[in-house]
Specification:
Blueprint: H1 2-29, E1 37-39, E2 42-43, E3 56-63, H2 90-107, E4 111-118, H3 129-134, E5 143-155, E6 162-172, E7 178-183, H4 191-196, E8 201-207, E9 215-221, H5 231-248, E10 252-258, H6 286-291, E11 293-294, H7 298-302, E12 327-331, E13 335-342, E14 356-362
Parallel strand pairs: 3-4, 9-10
Antiparallel strand pairs: 1-7, 2-5, 3-14, 4-6, 5-6, 7-8, 8-9, 10-12, 11-12, 13-14
């Protein structure tokens, strides 16, 4: 009798182990599993012009929050996960896309770095949002490349329960000759949850310059909910290593994106108490400020006029205004910064992030 009971227990646990490995296998093959490095597809006509050797290049970096606009408080927007909204309406997505196009048409940049572009996600009608935006942008934006950093056929989360797809997209008026994806370290988690989590990345695009080395444009979006781990430190170190390598090659480079980190030396008590738990008192981004040039300097970001460099308005009812900088543009010493600003005046109802506008001259 005891032997039969023991066999039953062993069979039961064996079945549980088998079910777990079947679930793990399914998760692995239906979610994004990128290598450390991979080439990415570039869409670019052969007759696209190259950058002139003495050109002034205007770059916009903008987290578009999957074209959701600013009329929602999503479940993840509040520290306790109690935000009431799960997705934007189809009408709001359409209206927001038109507003993004308006700003781009007005700014007339040469290169655009978008973060949080949805493609194939249930919450945004399974639409390729890059294709949607390209139809609205001027026709001289002929070249683009993208990389996914969140993609799954099905996420078993009560607020999702469907597919996800989110990517970085870089768009250019100038020729892009190649693109590649550099994987960033991921948040530590159990082996099953890790399959469904974000796989953050740096998207590198190389643009040829006449009689010069390449202009390398880097686009990134770091983790947002990595508290209690060294993930942000490791992600910044990966970026630092890549920028150091490019600097040694003496190429022209710019990196832009949503770093989800406060500026170096910024007093964390200057932000709303509900937001302070997301950040460390000493920002992990400090090593980038110590090693490279930022379009907004540490003095800018900590000085009496720091508000004009704020880049985000959280979807949190207790915060009614711009409150911090977490998006940045860094650039190589082979470039000269001609102008930089955060377009705040007419963009605060388009996304929870604002567009960064930098103009660079080739030395």
């Amino acid at each position: 009798m005891k032997s039969k009971f023991l066999k039953t227990i062993i069979s039961f646990f064996g079945l549980l182990v088998l079910l777990f490995f079947l679930l793990l296998t399914w998760a692995h093959f239906t979610t994004l599993q990128p290598p450390e490095f991979q080439e990415e597809q570039v869409v670019c006509p052969d007759n696209t012009p190259e950058i002139e050797k003495d050109a002034k290049i205007k770059v916009i970096s903008w987290n578009l929050q999957y074209l959701a606009g600013k009329t929602y408080v999503f479940y993840y927007d509040l520290p306790d996960g109690s935000g009431p909204d799960e997705r934007p309406s189809t009408e709001e997505i359409k209206k927001t896309a038109a507003e993004v196009a308006r700003v781009i048409q007005d700014e007339k940049p040469d290169i655009i770095l978008f973060q949080e572009i949805d493609d194939g996600a249930k919450k945004t009608d399974y639409e390729d949002q890059l294709a949607k935006l390209l139809k609205l942008l001027p026709k001289d934006f002929k070249c683009h490349t993208s990389t996914f950093y969140w993609k799954a056929d099905f996420i078993p989360h009560p607020h999702i329960m469907g597919s996800v797809g989110m990517k970085l997209s870089t768009i250019s008026k100038y020729k892009i000759k190649s693109a590649s994806r550099h994987a960033l370290p991921t948040i530590p988690d159990d082996i099953l949850k890790k399959q469904f989590n974000f796989k953050r990345a740096i998207l590198e695009a190389r643009l040829p310059v006449k009689e010069q080395k390449d202009f390398v444009v880097l686009n990134t979006h770091l983790d947002a909910f990595a508290q209690g781990s060294n993930t942000m430190e490791m992600q910044v170190k990966k970026i630092h290593g890549l920028l150091t390598k490019l600097t040694q090659e003496k190429v022209l480079w710019v990196i832009g994106g949503d770093f989800n980190l406060l500026p170096a030396d910024f007093d964390i008590h200057n932000i709303h108490p509900s937001q302070q738990s997301y950040y460390n008192p000493k920002s992990e981004i400090s090593i980038l400020f110590d090693s490279f040039s930022s379009a907004a300097t540490k003095e800018d970001l900590n000085g009496p006029n720091k508000e004009k460099f704020f880049t985000t308005v959280p979807n949190n009812p207790s915060i009614s205004r711009l409150d911090k900088t977490i998006d940045y543009l860094f650039y190589s010493d082979t470039l000269r910064l001609a102008n930089y600003r955060v377009r705040q005046e007419d963009t605060q109802k388009i996304s929870d992030h604002l567009p960064l506008v930098g103009e660079f001259e080739i030395k």
